[in-house]
Design goal:
two-stranded antiparallel sheet; 5-stranded antiparallel sheet; alpha+beta; about 250 residues
């Protein structure tokens, strides 16, 4: 009973994780412009894995796709590949999990076969979750590096301006605030949560494997009766000689 519950919960969590990972991959807000120190807040930019967009406080949005593949950075393409691999592996594992559920009868599939299918699906879900988490983490690392570099350049520019005089300091400060900086978008958090849910669903599938494997320690015993050994029986005659010899 516990194994069936683990299997069903792992299937449901993995399906939810696959949905969240697919949604995160399709979302455009992976990185959002940080408007905490900007002068103009009515318009802002944000981008995802497929589009770069400009939004306004009036609700208008204009997006353009990335028309190049070779011109994109290698880490950006790696994030795309990780998310796509995670989605494909998760989708295949979900389809196999439907056939491996113990509550669903698929022809004459044995319990041992369903247990092996459940284990394979659990491993695939774990790999898919790790791919989603790794893709979102790599993208987040690039945002952090860019944010820190932009902050350093802004502070450096302000310091140089301050050394040149009051007017120079003012210009340097304004120039620093106008430098666009980007922070985490909601798609990153959706990707992290989806990858974690996929990972947990895969672990539950692997735990269910131990309970679904049929017990091989029991065998259908057959009573074994050893054959009677042939032994000679001698009949003695009156004269004491062995006249007849009979085997039983």
């Amino acid at each position: 009973m516990a194994a069936t519950m683990f299997q069903l919960m792992g299937f449901l969590l993995s399906g939810l994780g696959l949905f969240l990972t697919s949604a995160a991959t399709a979302m455009d807000m992976w990185s959002v412009q940080d408007r905490s120190f900007t002068l103009v807040t009515s318009t802002y930019t944000y981008s995802g894995l497929w589009f770069s967009c400009v939004g306004s406080s009036y609700g208008t949005t204009e997006c353009r796709p990335f028309f190049t593949i070779l011109g994109l950075p290698g880490t950006f393409q790696a994030v795309r590949a990780l998310m796509i691999v995670g989605i494909v592996m998760g989708a295949i594992a979900v389809l196999i999990s439907i056939c491996s559920l113990k509550c669903i009868k698929m022809g004459s599939t044995e319990d041992g076969t369903k247990a092996n299918m459940t284990l394979a699906c659990g491993i695939m879900f774990i790999i898919a979750g790790l791919c989603a988490i790794a893709g979102a983490s790599v993208y987040a690392n690039q945002i952090v590096s860019s944010f820190m570099m932009t902050t350093y350049n802004s502070g450096y520019g302000g310091g140089m301006g301050g050394g040149m005089g009051g007017m120079g300091g003012g210009m340097g400060g304004i120039g620093g605030t106008l430098t666009p900086r980007y922070t985490f978008g909601p798609a990153l958090f959706v990707g992290w949560v989806g990858g974690a849910v996929l990972f947990i669903g895969g672990i539950l599938g692997c735990l269910a494997y131990r309970g679904l494997v049929p017990d091989k320690s029991r065998f259908n015993a057959v009573a074994y009766k050893a054959p009677a050994q042939d032994r000679p029986v001698y009949e003695h005659s009156e004269g004491g000689r062995h006249d007849n010899q009979k085997y039983v």
